[in-house]
Amino acid sequence: MVTAVLADSTKATSPLHNRYFRLLWAGRAISGLGDQCYLVALPWLVLQLTTSGVALGTVMMTGAIPTAVLMLVGGVLSDRLSARRILLVTTSVRAVCVAAIGALVALHVVALWQIYLLALAFGIADAFAAPASQTLVPSILEREQLPAASSITQSTQQLAMIIGPAPAGLLVKLLGTAWAFFIDAFSFLFVIAALWRIPDPPMSQAGKARSGILNSIAEGLRYINADVAMRSLLFVAAALNFCVAGPVSIGLAWIAKQHFGSPIAFSVFVASVAAGGLAGAVAAGIHTPHRRGVLMLAVSFMVALGTALLGVVTQVWSLSAVLFAMGAASGYLNVHLVAWFQQRVDRDMLGRTMSVIMLAAVGLQPLSLAFAGIAVAWSVAGMFAGSAALMLAVTILAALHKPVRDIE
Asked: Is the full-model pTM beyond 0.70?
C-alpha cells in the first residue's frame, strides 16, 4: 500500500500541517491563478491574429494530442525517476515558454506557428507533470491524509477557476496579452520554489528497475486489470468524463443559444457547474464516509440522473440548480476516486496507475466532444439521455462487484 516516506513527524489530521504539502499547495494556488491569465490570453491572442475559430480549435488540439499520447510514458517515468525533479523540469519549461510568447507579443513579432509550438510544449509537459504530481503527494503525506489533500487541491483549483477569469480578462483588456503571459510565467516560480524545498523520496528497488517502456506500461495495465475494484472504478471514471465533458460543454452552449439566445445564460450555466464542483470538493474533505464504495456508486448514479434532466429542464434557474448538483456530485466523486486510488496502489506502480486514470479523462475528451458535436445536431435531449444511460449502465455493472461495494 502507499506509505508516506517524507511525511512530517506530526500526526495531525489536516495535510496543511505538513510543511511540504503546505509549500506545494501554496505554490500551486498562486500558479493556478496565474494560469487563468494564460487561459484567457491564449485564445484571445489566437483570435486577434487569425479571427478563426478553426485556428483556435487546432491550437487546443495541438496541446491535447501529445498529452494523451505520452501520458502513459509519463506514468512510467514517474515510477522510475524522482517525481519532484520531473515537476521541476516541466514547470520550468512551461515558465520559459510562456515568458517567451509574452516577449514575442510585446515585441509585436508573434506568429501563429509560435503559438502552436507553445501549445505543443505545454501538451508534452502536461503528459509528464500530471502523473508525477499524483505520485509526489502520497510520498509526503500519511495515507489517512490523502482524501483531505485531494479535497484541498481540487477545491483550490475550482476556486481559481471561479475567481480568476474575470480579473484575467480585465488585465488583458487594460494591459494586453503580453502582460498576462508574463504574470503566468512569474506564477510558475512559486511552484518551482516549493519543489526546491521538498527532498526526493528514496527510490525502491522495483522503482529502479529498467524494463522496456512498453513492458512497464503493460505491467501497469495488468496491475489495474487484476484488481476488480480498481478496474471497475476506472471504468466509472472514464464513463463520467466521456458522458459529461463533451455533452455538457457543447450542450449547454447550444441550449443557451437556441433556447435563451443569450451568452449570459451560458455564463450562468458555467458558473453553476464550477460552484457545484467547489462545494462537492469541500464536502468530500469534510465528510469521510464509512462505506466509500457504496457512496461513490450512489454519487455516480446522481450524476447520471442529472445528465438526463439537462435534456428536459427548460428554465435557466432550474438548469442551473441541476448543474450545481451535478458539479457538486462530480467534485465529491473525483476527490474520493483520486484519494482511493492513491491509497490503494503500491508505491512502485503509482505513476503508471494514475497515468491510466488521467488518460481516461484527457484521452476521452476529444472523443466526447466529437460525439456531442454530432449528437447535439440530432437531438439535445437524446444526447443527454444517451449519455445518462451509458453512465448508468457502467455504474450498475460496477455495483454488481462485491469488492466495489465493500470499499471502506
From this structure: yes
